[in-house]
Amino acid sequence: MSEFAEPTAEDIRLRRRKIFAFLYGSFIYIIGVWGILLYTVGFVGNYFGPIINSRFGGVLPWKSIDMGVVEPFWTALAINIVLLIILGLQHSGMARPTFKNWWTRIVPKHLERSTYIVVAIAALVLLQWQWRPIPNALWDVQDPFWRPALNWISFAGWLTVLWATILVGHWKVFGVDQVIDFLEDRPYTKLPQTTPEYYKVGWPTTMKGLWYWSRHPDFLGFIIAFWVTPTMTIGHLTFAIGLTIYIMIGIYFLERNLIKLWGPDYEEYVKTRAKIIPWFVKQRPIVLSQRKTE
Predict the structure, then answer these.
(1) Rounded Cα–Cα distance for residues 275 and 255 (Å)
(2) Based on CB atoms within 10 Å of each CB, which residue in 45, 58, 69, 158 is the most buried?
């Protein structure tokens, strides 16, 4: 008599779902997240110039924020604003609890975050693909010391974004933990009164690191990356202003949701910590309650 029972049809279906979830989640994180992140760093920083102007320029559709076909000013500005609005609507619309509650009726809950990232990447790719450069320069630093220094500061902004996500739950933010829980037969759990948007995200992590001094150090990193540049063109300025406005609007709605999620704990955090720029805590820090995620 065989020691192991024959797998049932349900077992086979579950195994196939797990294989798909593993491949899907891995591809989105490794190729999608890291691919678009690195490309965006090059796009914003105009680091693709040497490649675009070389014989390898036609191998891939390399594009930078100030490089490409120049169109009439108002045409380019209108197109760029529309692209920024599309990106903002996608990020904001899909992040709303109402949409997520509906969305998870269609998309498996363990793949919801990864699928959100797919759509976000598509919106960002559209922006980068169709972006129209407006090369009129507001400033152009050519000093041999300050030009690379400004580029390094901008790059440090991207590193700040990465480090901030690691501190608050990098794997959760990008959907990896949700897939791993599914593979290990752990139920899709969420905190009381939460939505899938806040699936096991470790707020409030406020007693050490970047999140102790600022409520949104990840957004600080983005702002540094967008605004610190040796050459600020009108096209680059449009990009920086548009995404900074989106960040400020996003913070307003995000904090409203987090106050509903964490209650007095997060309200106290809002009162005592700076919004974006790290600053001294306004009063003696209190130990915020840590709630179980499972």
Answers:
(1) 10
(2) 45
